[in-house]
Automatic annotation (TrEMBL):
Catalyzes the reversible isomerization of glucose-6-phosphate to fructose-6-phosphate. NCBIfam families: PRK00179.1 (NF001211). The active site is at E355, H386, K506. Belongs to the GPI family. It comes from Sphaerisporangium rhizosphaerae. Signal peptide: none annotated. Pfam families: PGI. Pathway: Carbohydrate degradation; glycolysis; D-glyceraldehyde 3-phosphate and glycerone phosphate from D-glucose: step 2/4; Carbohydrate biosynthesis; gluconeogenesis. This is Glucose-6-phosphate isomerase.
Length: 543
């Protein structure tokens, strides 16, 4: 695999020259010269269609981007990941979320252990538990069936589960209530529990480490809430289950490890929604649908593993991101699902993309001399159009956008869906081609106002289309972005699987918390700003 620094790779240099030639060209020109590109520049996998023709690329660009992926070792590193090698070098760990969705009966032996067999053992226990909760066989302390499920977790132990629950609400049991508590702000848990009956409430405490302070604070408050209402410590056994890799900490919290669902250190938090962290998802949609979702993930994994780079959806999307970030100076990428059920998908992607690729040193510790992970953000369409799309259309930043749409609505109503999808195609068209001054003037706009109405266009989009949002399709979509992130991180030579940048803040918060609670003049050893803020807070708190 290459150790050549990125800027010295032959394909990088070729792209640099190529960018000087075509970087300024307009999508209007590219379409005029090659009118059939919209019929050709697309790819399809696992029921997902990608139109990438409205990107600022030619056939040559795509060839050079594939060369860069190849020269950067995307295929070799992908194969190392799928084999269970320790590709997360700074933590010395394998990265095997792909094993979480390998079918029952297949094998993947890593360091002497068949990880697929272990995965299915846990999936079977989860399915058994989910069935018991869904059927009412699992009862609370007073003998009543469970009606409310509250997942307590943060980061990957929250964002995946809540996104999947919202995305697949159509398939979920409507007589069960699902809530997700993540923030240490007490408002989160107070609001989530205020109208629930403790007798019918089950808490799933989800934490890979079982050491995350926010989750532990919420879990302790949930325990107090329950005991205050049911008056018996014994109630914990029927109202708390845990999802974690740390049995010792689960036991010392007071949850019987018989009610714990495990996973492994080779599942990163942001790659864990299809592990036991998805227990609440499974209770909501049922084991069969959960397995459908896993099958979708696996289908995209297989596509990523086997399709040629030029037709490989995650590679195409990942390399296009590299193209814009490193050659056009793009700082952010928008992801706009035109599907209300995917309203939490952008929030989920924020962690997946930015905790993975928000890095400034290569795997061997060299500070990079190029840009890495862009900001990913978004909102469902059409809402975003009436808010921030103005900046995407006419602002000074180049923001490539992924637009995600479906052929069928899960809630068809009059002509809503056609109106929704008309907006997807209209936005992609307006962003690409814009409106020239001549066209604006021809509409009768005065010369003074015309500059304000000019739409420069040349804003790139990917359009992703599928038939319907199903559990399977959700798996396909998430795996697509996971592997796109992998592709980008590999080109940049960074470790996409660690997250050391979140640690310092945790340590400092641990030091500051007792200072906020102590009476009298605290021993404040911080900078003058932090000390002053702490004093001010104490004053406000005690006012
Ligand atoms: O602080 C970041 C982080 O470590 C994420 O990577 C992780 O998803 C989240 O915290 C929660 O961690 P845990 O599942 O161990 O509670």
């Amino acid at each position: 695999m290459t150790t050549t620094p990125l800027r010295e790779r032959a394909s990088w240099k070729a792209l640099k020259e190529h960018h000087a030639e075509i970087g300024g060209r307009h999508l209007r020109e590219l379409f005029a010269e090659d009118p059939g590109r919209g019929e050709r520049m697309n790819a399809e996998a696992a029921g997902l269609y990608l139109d990438y023709s409205k990107n600022r690329v030619t056939g040559e660009t795509l060839g050079l981007l594939a060369d860069l992926a190849r020269e950067s070792g995307v295929e070799e590193r992908r194969d190392l990941m799928f084999r269970g090698e320790r590709v997360n070098t700074s933590e010395g760990r394998s990265v095997l979320h792909v094993a979480l969705r390998m079918p029952k009966g297949s094998t993947l032996v890593v360091e002497g252990v068949d990880v697929v067999a272990e995965v299915h053992e846990v999936l079977d226990r989860m399915a058994d538990f989910a069935r018991r909760v869904r059927s009412g066989e699992w009862t609370g302390h007073t003998g009543k069936p469970i009606k409310n499920i509250v997942n307590i977790g943060i980061g990957g132990s929250d964002l995946g589960p809540v996104m999947a629950y919202e995305a697949l609400r159509h398939y979920s049991r409507r007589d069960l209530t699902f809530r997700y508590v993540s923030n240490v702000d007490s408002t989160d848990i107070v609001e989530a529990t205020r109208d629930l009956s403790a007798e019918e409430t089950l808490f799933i405490v989800s934490s890979k480490t079982f050491g995350t302070s926010e989750t532990l604070a919420n879990a302790h408050s949930a325990r107090e809430w329950l005991i205050a209402r049911l008056g018996d410590e014994e109630a914990i056994a029927r109202h708390f289950v845990a999802v974690s890799t740390n049995a010792e900490r689960v036991a010392s919290f007071g949850i019987d490890t018989a009610n714990m669902f495990g996973f492994w250190d080779w599942v990163g938090g942001r790659y864990s929604m299809d592990s036991a962290i998805g227990l609440s998802t499974m209770v909501a949609i049922g084991p069969e649908n959960f397995h459908e979702m896993l099958a979708g993930f696996h289908e995209m994994d297989e596509h990523f593993r086997t399709a040629p780079l030029e037709r490989n959806l995650p590679v195409l999307m990942g390399m296009l991101a590299v193209w814009y970030v490193d050659f056009f100076g793009t700082q952010s990428i928008g992801v706009m699902p035109y599907e209300q059920y995917l309203k939490r998908f952008p929030a989920y992607l924020q962690q997946l993309t930015m905790e993975s690729n928000g890095k400034r040193v290569t795997r061997d510790g060299q500070v990079v001399d190029y840009d890495t992970g862009p900001v990913y953000w978004g909102e469902p369409g059409t809402n975003g159009q009436h808010s921030f799309y103005q900046l995407i259309h006419q602002g000074t930043h180049l923001i490539p956008v992924d637009l995600i749409g479906f052929g069928k609505s899960l809630n068809p109503l009059r002509d809503h869906h056609d109106l929704l999808m008309a907006n997807v195609f209209a936005q992609a068209q307006a962003l690409a081609f814009g409106k020239t001054e001549q066209e604006v003037l021809a509409d009768g706009t005065s010369p003074e106002v015309a500059p304000h109405r000019v739409m420069p266009g040349n804003r790139p989009t990917n359009v992703l289309l599928a038939e319907t949002l199903t559990p399977r399709l959700l798996g396909v979509l998430v795996a697509l972005y996971e592997h796109s992130v992998f592709t980008q991180g590999t080109v940049w030579g960074i470790d996409s699987f660690d997250q050391w940048g979140v640690e310092l803040g945790k340590v400092l918060a641990g030091q500051i918390a007792p200072e906020l609670q102590s009476d009298g003049e605290p021993d404040l050893a911080h900078d003058s700003s932090t000390n002053t803020l702490i004093r001010r807070y104490r004053g406000l708190k005690n006012a």
